[in-house]
């Protein structure tokens, strides 16, 4: 199973924000550059993370992005379910639809496997992902324009 690029970017951004100290509130452009993704893509992902309550954007002087407590400590599996959706792993209903879709044991098996994938991530949270050795690497990242 392969995650979408948007989900990967969302996790990178959340991890980067999770290692920053109090009062370190980067702009979306700064975060995008530090994790090596295009600004336009990062902006869409940040908007989605705000909607999910993972990230807050503070306006004004000293404003910028910060990860919320819920974003740090919430279940990684639940976050991925939100970001990825829980549709079919393969395109059973694509055009043209698969002729086996009404009675396909493979479809059911893939759904079970997909849920097992998410369930394996349920006990983890973003804070778990930024423990050493990842955290120090995240802190060392410098902005490199990706656009
Ligand atoms: S064979 Fe089954 S799992 Fe594969 S596309 Fe068809 S319905 Fe879906």
Please give a structural write-up.
By secondary structure, the protein is mainly α. 52% of the residues lie in helices and 5% in strands. It contains eight helices and two strands. A two-stranded antiparallel sheet has the order 1-2. Helix 5 (76-84) crosses helix 6. It is elongated. The model has no long low-confidence stretch (mean pLDDT 93). The structure holds iron/sulfur cluster. Residues 90, 92, 98, 100-101, 104, 106-107, 110 line the site of iron/sulfur cluster (SF4). Iron/sulfur cluster is lined by residues 90, 92, 98, 100-101, 104, 106-107, 110.
DSSP helix count? 8
Structural class computed from helices and strand pairing: mainly alpha
Q: Point out poorly predicted stretches.
A: none
> In this structure, how is the largest beta sheet organized?
2 strands, antiparallel
Span between N and C termini?
28 Å
Q: Return Rg in Å.
A: 18 Å
Percentage of residues in helical conformation: 40-55%
Apparent shape: elongated
**Which molecules are bound in this entry?**
iron/sulfur cluster
How many strands in all?
Answer: 2
Q: Encode the helix/strand succession as letters.
A: HHHEEHHHHH
Strand content: 5-15%
Strand arrangement in the largest pleated sheet: 1-2
| Average residue-wise pLDDT | 93
Name some characteristics of this structure.
147 residues, mainly alpha, two-stranded antiparallel ribbon, 8 helices, 2 strands, elongated, binds iron/sulfur cluster
